[in-house]
UniProtKB/TrEMBL annotation, chains A, B, C, D, E, F:
Fe cation binds at residues 209, 215, 245. One of its GO terms (biological process) is L-phenylalanine catabolic process. Pathway: Amino-acid degradation; L-phenylalanine degradation; acetoacetate and fumarate from L-phenylalanine: step 4/6. It comes from Medicago truncatula (Barrel medic). It is an enzyme of class 1 (oxidoreductase). The active site is at 166 (proton acceptor). Its cofactor is Fe cation. It comes from the Eukaryota. InterPro entries: HgmA_C, HgmA_N, Homogentis_dOase, RmlC-like_jellyroll, RmlC_Cupin_sf. Keywords: Dioxygenase, Iron, Metal-binding, Oxidoreductase, Phenylalanine catabolism, Tyrosine catabolism. The lineage of its organism: Eukaryota, Viridiplantae, Streptophyta, Embryophyta, Tracheophyta. It catalyses: homogentisate + O2 = 4-maleylacetoacetate + H(+). This is Homogentisate 1,2-dioxygenase. Residues 2-153 form the Homogentisate 1,2-dioxygenase N-terminal domain.
Amino acid sequence: MRHGYAIHMYTANKSMDNCAFCNADGDFLIVPQQGRLFITTECGRLNVSPGDVAIIPQGFRFNVNLPDGPSRGYVAEVFGTHFQLPDLGPIGANGLASPRDFLAPTAWFEDKSYPGYTIVQKFGGELFTAIQDFSPFNVVAWHGNYVPYKYDLSKFCPYNTVLYDHSDPSINTVLTAPTDKPGVALLDFVIFPPRWLVAEHTFRPPYYHRNCMSEFMGLIHGNYEAKVDGFLPGGASLHNCMTPHGPDTKSYESTIARGNNVGPHKIIDTMAFMFESSLIPRISQSALESPFLDHDYYQCWIGLRSHFTVPELKTIKTKE
Amino acid sequence: MRHGYAIHMYTANKSMDNCAFCNADGDFLIVPQQGRLFITTECGRLNVSPGDVAIIPQGFRFNVNLPDGPSRGYVAEVFGTHFQLPDLGPIGANGLASPRDFLAPTAWFEDKSYPGYTIVQKFGGELFTAIQDFSPFNVVAWHGNYVPYKYDLSKFCPYNTVLYDHSDPSINTVLTAPTDKPGVALLDFVIFPPRWLVAEHTFRPPYYHRNCMSEFMGLIHGNYEAKVDGFLPGGASLHNCMTPHGPDTKSYESTIARGNNVGPHKIIDTMAFMFESSLIPRISQSALESPFLDHDYYQCWIGLRSHFTVPELKTIKTKE
Amino acid sequence: MRHGYAIHMYTANKSMDNCAFCNADGDFLIVPQQGRLFITTECGRLNVSPGDVAIIPQGFRFNVNLPDGPSRGYVAEVFGTHFQLPDLGPIGANGLASPRDFLAPTAWFEDKSYPGYTIVQKFGGELFTAIQDFSPFNVVAWHGNYVPYKYDLSKFCPYNTVLYDHSDPSINTVLTAPTDKPGVALLDFVIFPPRWLVAEHTFRPPYYHRNCMSEFMGLIHGNYEAKVDGFLPGGASLHNCMTPHGPDTKSYESTIARGNNVGPHKIIDTMAFMFESSLIPRISQSALESPFLDHDYYQCWIGLRSHFTVPELKTIKTKE
Amino acid sequence: MRHGYAIHMYTANKSMDNCAFCNADGDFLIVPQQGRLFITTECGRLNVSPGDVAIIPQGFRFNVNLPDGPSRGYVAEVFGTHFQLPDLGPIGANGLASPRDFLAPTAWFEDKSYPGYTIVQKFGGELFTAIQDFSPFNVVAWHGNYVPYKYDLSKFCPYNTVLYDHSDPSINTVLTAPTDKPGVALLDFVIFPPRWLVAEHTFRPPYYHRNCMSEFMGLIHGNYEAKVDGFLPGGASLHNCMTPHGPDTKSYESTIARGNNVGPHKIIDTMAFMFESSLIPRISQSALESPFLDHDYYQCWIGLRSHFTVPELKTIKTKE
Amino acid sequence: MRHGYAIHMYTANKSMDNCAFCNADGDFLIVPQQGRLFITTECGRLNVSPGDVAIIPQGFRFNVNLPDGPSRGYVAEVFGTHFQLPDLGPIGANGLASPRDFLAPTAWFEDKSYPGYTIVQKFGGELFTAIQDFSPFNVVAWHGNYVPYKYDLSKFCPYNTVLYDHSDPSINTVLTAPTDKPGVALLDFVIFPPRWLVAEHTFRPPYYHRNCMSEFMGLIHGNYEAKVDGFLPGGASLHNCMTPHGPDTKSYESTIARGNNVGPHKIIDTMAFMFESSLIPRISQSALESPFLDHDYYQCWIGLRSHFTVPELKTIKTKE
Amino acid sequence: MRHGYAIHMYTANKSMDNCAFCNADGDFLIVPQQGRLFITTECGRLNVSPGDVAIIPQGFRFNVNLPDGPSRGYVAEVFGTHFQLPDLGPIGANGLASPRDFLAPTAWFEDKSYPGYTIVQKFGGELFTAIQDFSPFNVVAWHGNYVPYKYDLSKFCPYNTVLYDHSDPSINTVLTAPTDKPGVALLDFVIFPPRWLVAEHTFRPPYYHRNCMSEFMGLIHGNYEAKVDGFLPGGASLHNCMTPHGPDTKSYESTIARGNNVGPHKIIDTMAFMFESSLIPRISQSALESPFLDHDYYQCWIGLRSHFTVPELKTIKTKE
């Protein structure tokens, strides 16, 4: 499968019954926002709560049970590569997501007859089914490192500036599905977790920008600092490649009003995330026609005004 | 020249007169701790104050003038490679030392006769002299990027954990002279600048450790957080490869007394630095016999005692 | 041309007359299964028998003569890369295919008029023709290493386990058309030649598996060890990405019956091969509608049954 | 520490008492040939029998107890790099040493007073001591992958030719301490384990050669196939860079007498090994003066004679 | 955006008024052939004359003014990568295009209201518009190296053979948009500038060839040496992948008539260029239907005849 | 053997009789300046004339016969690496030394008794001897690419600027023994062959410079353009790392007198060469005490004077 990705938002009302799913095309990164997922895989079972993420690699058969009733959330699918930890560079031995916090299941199997058990296989973008009369979860033992796993986002150890300036969001990369070009991911999974803000002499919220990445954001719980209203848990925004964006008018004006030198401040009770890619996504027809589409999103920036005053010519001249 | 390095501590009482120096063996990284250096090079002139560092690459002729009288400080010399900025990894586009803050001189020359002008050349570890009757600073213009430059350490943008845990000192790398093996430098130049400490549930001072790097530390001004007394500006310590070290007893005990959950704290007025290498340095005879050698350094750790209590067996068992 | 490949099965009834072919899109790897190919190229002539393979790189004009009458076989086409020998790793200086066994032609030319000589060029997936009145095989001499070549598969030096366990088929790679990711080929050409089997305490036939590669198999002569009947020379099977497959029921049951500790055994008179790719192939309409399609292939696995007995709990417990 | 290595042969008569050793210069690979080693490290305890090897990385403190009485064996020390598994290339997912067979210790500690406990530290090629009054094995828990480990050589899965020709010994690489140049190791650890020999039309014993590597061989138990007498368990041979060597006269003549087409043969009860390096070792004075030096080693090749007959000129001519 | 490129020929009759363009898909390399372009970008202004080229990277908003009236020329667009200088290899420190000749603009801004100002954004191959009431050129200052720039082609320092043989056109590479495979560009920008020809014993014009690259040529001024008539400034030719091409009949015959040993000759007043890619371009419908399409181009080669005489067999034999 | 090199100047008066030499430490590159060398190796025989160079890789046994009587010349020895062709970069498929011009010997052997035949082996910098009673040149056939070879320097295809400026000598690299750092060789073998000079507006002779490489020059025949007298065939000069050098006073003044715009000029009858290394060589005692040492070499630069006139301040100002 050539390099690529897909982003889905899911709502699941009932558990999978007498069937399993298998993605022959790529890997799933699942971000439940509401309702636990109890995932049975050929390597064992994973209990995935909102605040956790689960990765089901290409080719694994799995069944999802909903112990809490309906569940909703986000799924990213990557083709032609796998998620990995970013190379930490000067961050060194500690920081961001730690390998030991990614949990693989203990081997579990059932040697059981299931008449009419259905395997649904996603292959080449289409769905195929096969019927068998036994459980696919009959793997007695396994070794290796090609396995499903989960990660609790609250284990993330965020880094950031501790004096001045504003960090690139890449500092919050949990996992990356790389391309061959360093720094240009097929898909980065980035979070905005609770953390201390201490930067001085700066504009602390995410700055206004446009860039070569397409940014899909979601919110797991709490608020997102750059959108004081209108961005709710379970919602999503998409800021595409080279489309300018930034804080809404209210966030901006209140930041300006506070001034640039507020002291340390801890952001608590929040967990936003971003799927960020160097490939521009196409929007599906169903998304474009969804009743949940926010046609007024652009209004969050209405009323933005310049706070810049052109300095007098004399001032500029002295710099030459 | 094969890969290698040398670390010097210098005390200069007078300006260089009618002479220039040239290092054919490697590059100098100069860290004045007291007294400005006014350095004339073939590419132009650099005014280097304490708090700045200057790099004079292999083969440049230069003359040092002392506008403030005597100067002292530290010099690292690297052979077979050059200093470069570390690859920032997830830190991304901002953070640590920024390329635009490294300042190269404007071309400057003199077309002048200087009878008896002496060039002192360090070549193969020995000093040679040549006499000429004109200034070596007769380069009218230049282009390229092999040039002397300086950097003001207060421009450094420090990153660190903003929630919990303790960072590896590599996070404070200003410049690195790499080897072929990522993460294992020939010589890293690392600083401990003013910054906010916000980590929770952790022991904030540098932790006790031994590692594969040999660490030479110096102090430019202020105090160093892990040695409450006894480490003075202009001093130096060397903790060699796999030799355990850490905070002195007083720093340790006062940290323990404070507990692990103190709030945000800003370290101000300090500028310590480290030259860190994967090659074990040999100590020169003159250093070993120096009247300034601190024979009692080990005493800073006398009195350290364990605060650990072995948990009852029952507690351990429940983890199985 | 972006990276890609195509696999063809050919039947040729007569020699190419007064014409030459040229593939502007990619390289051909030709595997005749029946009937020799006498290939004239701009660099000289290759006599290719069943058991040999020939590679005609992108852009070479060539003519094929059938000295034995009709010929049939397999052709792989790779786009955007070329075939190369695999990096042998610990296998070292000897083993698998040796560079000296790949034979390039001696320069040969004709200075001759051929009225109406037609060049058929495959370009961008379409065929174009040009008429000229002279032979294209008018290259008097050449040098370089971009040339057609052939290889006799019986020169292959197979490696495998010589004690226990079961090897990955990559151990039998003759040529690989790589991608940028080590271990994930655009197209591997792998053979299953005569060889000794000596592994103890193991299931010797190819094991049941599904994986990220799509596997197209063919048979040049003899039998294939995992399909006791039904896989004939000139035939082909396709096991696509993440579709489970393995020995047919008869092969499996007879292996089980023999037990795991049979002694050395030499497989003779066989030459199966595999084109294996990390990109999922689309099947052409003509293949799907072919009268030769084996609609009952799946039946080779009917009747497979488990030989596994769940061990008693006590046994498992002693491992903790 | 620059790249380098050392090879030692040890004889230990008693356990280490109230002391621990630490190598600040490099890593130890320990190959006991006789007598178990019970090694206590800061990460836990390793029980190392003849047939196992243990690796103690740079900087770990450890104590060795001899539960069986005296022990002897071999130790390799590598500087500036670490041992790693070789990249398997076409061998793929299985074969040679498997990561899961390298065993790290479970955390173990003692919170105990030991008056006069001595740490012996090897630093810069010299030994230093420090006295403390507590056990250094007070590490309560650990995580990471920089740890001592052991490997049972009987788990090795040997690969080799299964048809004809003779393999390069690199096919038996257990661990390699690489240089920057692929295929040219600082130190390879290679074994010659029990295995099937099936090659046809070839000279099966190690062939006569000279090469760019220096080869130190030892024998753990059994016989070594190329030296029918005179190479005993616990012994060692050194064939230096570009010094020709090969089977002794008896092995050679008996191979010739058997002819080239003997059938499958299983070598059992043997475990020879090789430390192989691209750097020429200097021999220590004590080794050169050892009463165990075999001054007559060269005699094993006395009496070798040519079995080659120059073919008549006519035969050669036909190849042109 | 996946790797790709597009080539456009433009004719502009009037300046852009109250609007700006932004390419979210890739970078523009603009080659004006007639009429200056005065380009205003967010980073400042570039004055681009015929003989200069300008690069506007992905995402920059810009406005083009035509100070000389109508302008025409060529534009290449690259997706998924950026143009860079080729690695010079043995050419070393000097030669071809020098980094210091690529000129970035000085920051320039306007703080001005423009009712109805339109931003036209190319995104995913389609055009979108947005209306705003202020100038987008309100960037007061900038730093970094992601900027628009221009280059004067007459600064190019051409290299070539100075004794015999004929150079590959890659020797004239100004800028390259690389793929991951060295030597196989996504798009090379190559020029044929004024230069000395001194090669002896050779056919000096571009030789007849076909190759894996698709070659689009244009002419900025003067004549192109391989087409004595019919290739005019502002024109273009496309020789696609593996399509043979070379000098027209007149150029060829006059070269043959001159013989192989003419002395030094300086080509003056010429500036042809080539966009060369390893990906085959599709031709747009509008180009195929253009009234400017030269349907008789192939006629430039009509009348080519062989000057080769088959040597007698005896001569060939002596080489064996 | 660690990376390193040695440079020797040899004078041989008689052929090697009943003996062979073998260098276990590294490879020889032999540059005869006077008198042919007839070299017999285990792979066959090489006839090496002045104007040719021969490479004898590490570990080959060879015998040298002098068919013309005494021979003299230069030998470079490289340790830890081998010579290879430079990566040509934009030079592309043609230019500099072509692989097909490096000639390996045809297999040749003798099956002959030679009582008292002596092998002299250089090992670890010392010489060892072994006596045998047969010719070592008993290798009947060979394959592979680790072989002795020779190259005729007149086949070199020199490249250079064909418009303006002055090339780096790296453009004339025949072979390079690389380090891990691109552009910084362990030893480059560079020649200054006959070629056309056409550069305009420039100072054509080698410019005055000092750099990080140490340059050993020799002359095979003719004159060297930068030393009008005093540099004779068979002589040598050494300009060490960061020691300034350039044309002698006469060459300089006559160039100045000619002016900068002389037309094309062909340098004929010359063959100078350079061994250039990034490692500073130590000079042997015998070289320092040689009666052939030129104690007055420095005098070639006596009398150099500046031709520069400081422009008036006004002129400089207008550039700002």
